[in-house]
């Protein structure tokens, strides 16, 4: 049967062209996504940077700690502690040492990611003075040439403590791995007592012996890169990509596979008359199935190979697009090679394409091969849209969709806040309605065509009966529209609705009158907080983000923590307390989220970066979402605990006593924070600012998924309509022989394509309504009453383009076919 399959492909290449196009694009999409996901596994192989000229570096390191398995910005306890004082003394006994310290230090008006170091370590990172000299006094600094400061200039440097003037005595040539501000060694030690690393100039073996048994490691050779921040920055730069690509891959891959399978199955169904003739001349069911599967193997192999090649180029284009959106770092990309990270995704995409082609052909070939010859001829003329297998999958999918919506809405509402988990669930109802489309075509056709029942002429009747007679064809052409519009509404609607719910939740939680927000800096320093707190009638809470390490079943766990002023906490934040009271928080207590699993009054052992361990009693337990389950401790632990961050508060909440002149207090606060990298805003302004940042990132992520999926679905719409219309030459001939003019024929096919698009849109609305209903239930439980927000303009635009493409996909092949004489059309080989 392989020979017959080859001859069939040669003779019926037009019918298979649509399948080949869909398969090539589907495999290319899967290959491109796989290649980009593979690229995420390998960070750039960078050489040592900050300690490139150091023979050995003593650095706090936990060999069991894999940063990829932890939140960004969180370090191991060993790295957070730095190099203990006793270890420094033992290493110093082996020879000369140079102590490095790293801390937030920003020249006013400069980059927010500037970092401070003692000048003595500059030489190991390749820093060279371009102008001036080294700092010798505690009031002198050396800056990078990228800072814009010049020798002799007096500048203000912001640190976690506040702002202080310094004299610029030197300028270094800029480097590409950090923006540094260098202080004298004594001034750096005053600002940051913690020792980040030690450059050991003595014998390496002696240094290793000196640190034996401690929490530090001696780094030499390429391992010195562990002390650089670029590895963390590379991982942070990939964070958005890591979040986006799995979502995109799952949604786009599932869409591609579904469209390809549907397209191939539709191509086989179109040839039922040929299959009937083969059965009539003696072909056995097994032979028919083997022929169709052989065609699928040939088409799948050729199209998958082409798709893999296209996927290699597509991955590079997609990487550049993600870089242009600001979602990926500039170095992210895919380089064709024989590396496993390239070969495995390509091989997986190839096998997926062949498998999808086979699966797309199996159901139709089995159905055609099972009937008797006379029944096969009758089946070729009469449309039977739903097989028992499709009924089973469709009903099962719909039940699974309803169950998923109920599960997300009532049992696991927090899933809606985790895109990697939630977005794939949106596909379930859409896929279910796609499978059930043939059975829904009848009712929807009658519903949409009902207003045209009294129209003059037979046009409306012809359009309606054509759709009803060939329900399988109508459903197959409506499914791409369903996928396009359904995914657009579900993805974009979910994005905007979740954003609106988050804004509402933040607005309801913050009860402060005003908020101190960063102004060109990464956070709020202590001086700004103290000056605002000194304003009469004003109370301030400035949570300093830190990390609280606790033991959980003999395993060290890290949790985000806030060091706050207890007296003002309840005045500015409305935490949903379940047990205990925020007023009970003191230096011996801690407030935890319910998800931490502790009980009220239970002691919690917390490990601090200075090497100390404290036992804190649970003073209150509150309800919090995953990702927002933060522990609250007093400001006593701000210094010892602020080892995983820069010692700055993300923002500070300000409340004003009743009877206080608010205008005067506001003016005083704004005067107090002038020049300290902070500004005073209202709660609404803070919510709007943070919402804008969050919305931009979330919108770019979700819209990136939508763009990739919708573009593929647009192609599928045109592809499927071209296949369906090109196969209807007999219908064209019948209409022409019945007296229809070419214009009337084109109008009828255009009207039918609009009907098909309308059916797809209605199915999309039904599936999206199910998705958004579950989302609304979930978010209402998390944040309270939440409106469902759908970007109607964007969705309307996508729907209009889908309808236009559907019309073009029908009109263009129809116009081309009408160039032939009506009799020629009637006698044309199908």
TrEMBL record:
InterPro entries per the UniProt record, alphabetical: ABC3_permease_C, Macrolide_Exporter_MacB
Topology with respect to the bilayer: Multi-pass membrane protein
Keywords: Cell membrane, Membrane, Transmembrane, Transmembrane helix
Compartmental location: Cell membrane
Pfam families: FtsX
Transmembrane segments: 12-41, 244-269, 296-323, 343-368, 389-410, 422-441, 705-724, 745-778, 790-812
Domain ABC3 transporter permease C-terminal: residue ranges: 252-369, 704-819
Gene Ontology terms: cellular component: plasma membrane
GO MF entry, a single one: transmembrane transporter activity
Principal location: membrane
Top-rank lineage group of the source organism: Bacteria
Family, similarity comment: Belongs to the ABC-4 integral membrane protein family.
Protein name, per record: ABC3 transporter permease C-terminal domain-containing protein
Organism: Phytohabitans flavus
């Amino acid at each position: 049967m392989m020979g017959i399959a080859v001859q069939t492909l040669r003779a019926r290449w037009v019918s298979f062209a649509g399948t080949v196009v869909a398969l090539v694009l589907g495999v290319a999409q899967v290959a491109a996504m796989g290649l980009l996901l593979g690229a995420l596994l390998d960070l750039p192989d960078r050489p040592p940077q900050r300690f490139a000229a150091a023979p050995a570096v003593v650095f706090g390191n936990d060999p069991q700690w894999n940063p990829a398995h932890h939140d960004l910005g969180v370090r191991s306890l060993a790295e957070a502690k730095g190099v203990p004082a006793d270890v420094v003394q033992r290493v110093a006994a082996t020879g000369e040492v140079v102590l490095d310290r790293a801390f937030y230090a920003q020249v006013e008006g400069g980059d927010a990611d500037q970092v401070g170091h003692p000048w003595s370590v500059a030489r190991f990172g390749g820093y060279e003075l371009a102008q001036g000299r080294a700092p010798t006094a505690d009031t002198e600094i050396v800056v990078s040439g990228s800072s814009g400061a010049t020798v002799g200039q007096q500048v203000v440097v912001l640190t976690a403590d506040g702002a202080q003037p310094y004299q610029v005595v030197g300028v270094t040539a800029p480097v590409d791995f950090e923006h540094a501000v260098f202080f004298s060694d004594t001034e750096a030690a005053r600002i940051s007592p913690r020792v980040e690393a030690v450059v050991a100039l003595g014998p390496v073996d002696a240094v290793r012996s000196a640190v034996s048994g401690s929490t530090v490691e001696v780094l030499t050779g390429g391992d010195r890169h562990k002390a650089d921040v670029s590895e963390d920055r590379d991982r942070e730069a990939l964070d958005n990509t890591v979040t986006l690509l799995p979502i995109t891959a799952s949604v786009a891959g599932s869409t591609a596979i579904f469209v390809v399978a549907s397209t191939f199955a539709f191509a086989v169904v179109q040839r039922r008359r040929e299959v009937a003739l083969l059965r009539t001349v003696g072909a056995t069911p097994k032979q028919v199935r083997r022929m169709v599967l052989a065609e699928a193997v040939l088409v799948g192999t050729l199209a998958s190979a082409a798709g893999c090649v296209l996927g290699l180029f597509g991955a590079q284009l997609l990487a550049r697009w993600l870089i242009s959106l600001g979602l990926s770092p500039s170095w992210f990309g895919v380089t064709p090679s024989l590396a496993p990270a390239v070969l495995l995704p390509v091989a997986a995409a190839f096998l997926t394409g062949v498998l999808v082609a086979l699966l797309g052909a199996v159901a139709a070939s089995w159905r055609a091969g099972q009937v008797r010859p006379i029944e096969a001829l009758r089946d070729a003329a009469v449309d039977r849209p739903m097989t028992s297998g499709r009924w089973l999958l469709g009903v099962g999918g719909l039940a699974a969709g309803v169950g998923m919506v109920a599960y997300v809405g009532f049992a696991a509402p927090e899933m809606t806040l985790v895109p990697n988990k939630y977005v794939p669930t949106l596909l379930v109802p859409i896929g279910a309605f796609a499978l059930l489309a043939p059975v829904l075509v009848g009712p929807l056709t009658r519903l949409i065509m009902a207003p045209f029942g009294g129209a003059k002429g037979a046009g409306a009747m012809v359009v309606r009966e054509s759709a009803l007679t060939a329900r399988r064809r109508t459903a197959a052409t409506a499914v791409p529209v369903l996928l396009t519009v359904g995914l657009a509404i579900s993805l974009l609607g979910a994005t905007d609705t979740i954003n609106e719910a988050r804004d509402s939740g933040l607005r309801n939680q913050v009860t402060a009158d005003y908020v101190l927000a960063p102004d060109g800096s990464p956070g709020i320093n202590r001086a700004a907080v103290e000056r605002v707190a000194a304003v009469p009638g004003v109370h301030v809470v400035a949570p300093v983000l830190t990390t609280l390490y606790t033991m959980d079943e003999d395993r060290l766990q890290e949790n985000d923590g806030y060091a706050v002023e207890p007296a003002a906490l309840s005045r500015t934040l409305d935490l949903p307390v379940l047990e205990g009271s925020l007023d009970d928080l003191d230096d011996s207590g801690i407030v935890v989220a319910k998800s931490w699993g502790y009980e009220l009054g239970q002691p919690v052992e917390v490990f601090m970066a200075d090497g100390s361990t404290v036992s804190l009693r649970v003073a209150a337990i509150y309800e919090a979402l995953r990702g927002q389950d933060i522990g609250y401790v007093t400001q006593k632990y701000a210094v010892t605990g602020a080892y995983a961050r820069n010692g700055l508060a993300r923002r500070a909440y300000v409340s004003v006593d009743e009877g206080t002149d608010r205008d005067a207090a506001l003016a005083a606060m704004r005067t107090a924070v002038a020049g300290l990298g902070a500004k005073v805003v209202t709660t609404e302004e803070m919510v709007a600012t943070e919402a804008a940042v969050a919305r931009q990132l979330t919108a770019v992520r979700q819209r990136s998924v939508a763009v990739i999926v919708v573009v593929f679905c647009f192609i599928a719409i045109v592809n499927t309509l071209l296949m369906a219309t090109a196969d209807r030459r007999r219908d064209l001939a019948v209409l022409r022989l019945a007296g229809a003019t070419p214009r009337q024929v084109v109008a009828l096919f255009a009207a039918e394509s609009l009907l098909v698009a309308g059916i797809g849109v209605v199915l999309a609305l039904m599936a999206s309504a199910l998705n958004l209903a579950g989302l609304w239930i979930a978010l209402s439980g998390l944040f309270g009453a939440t409106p469902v927000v759908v970007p109607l303009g964007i969705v309307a635009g996508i729907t209009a383009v889908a309808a236009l493409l559907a019309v073009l996909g029908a009109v263009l092949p129809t116009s081309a076919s009408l160039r032939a004489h009506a009799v020629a059309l009637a006698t044309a080989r199908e």
